[in-house]
Amino acid sequence: MKLHKKIGIFLMAVCMSTLANAQEKVVKSPAETATGKINGATITVNYGSPSVKGRAIWGELVPFGKPWRSGANNPTTFETDKEITVEGKKLPAGKYSFFIIPEKESATVVFNKEFKQWGSYKMDEKDEVLKVKVTPKKSASLTEKLVYKVNKDNVTLSWENWDIPVKVK
C-alpha cells in the first residue's frame, strides 16, 4: 500500500473518531430558562444548571461571603419588561446580571446592569442597580440540579438543600 493511501486512511480514522467523541459530549451544566408573570410583568431568568453530584454546595463549592454568578457558565440574567418591586425596593424594567452573596443565615441578591460579564470576577459595585437581603430556607428534599422558578409572588432559586426566595411585586 502506498504511503499517501495509508495517510488518507489514518486521517479518515482520526476524523471519524473525533466526530464520534463530539456526539457523545454531554453538557454538564445545560442552559435553562425560567419565565413567568408577576403582577403583569414578564420575568425571564436565564442560567446554567449545574448538578450537586455529591458535593457540599453552600459554604463549600459556593463560599460564604463571596459573590456568586447564581448558576454555571455565563452569568445568570434576570429580565423584566416592566418596573417591579423586589423585597420592597423598585427595580426598573431591563436586563440584569443576577448575583448572590450567600451567608450562613442569609443571602444578598444583587442586580447588576453589566449582564455580559463572565462569572463574578469583574462584578463592580458601581454597576449595581439593586441589592437586597433575603433569607434562604431549608428545602424539603435535595434539589440535584439548580433550578429557578417564577412563582406568583417570588422568584426562587433551589439547589442542594436551600431554596432562596426573592419577593417580587
From TrEMBL:
InterPro entries: DUF2911. Keywords: Signal. It comes from the Bacteria. The keyword Signal applies. Residues 1-22 form the signal peptide. This is DUF2911 domain-containing protein.
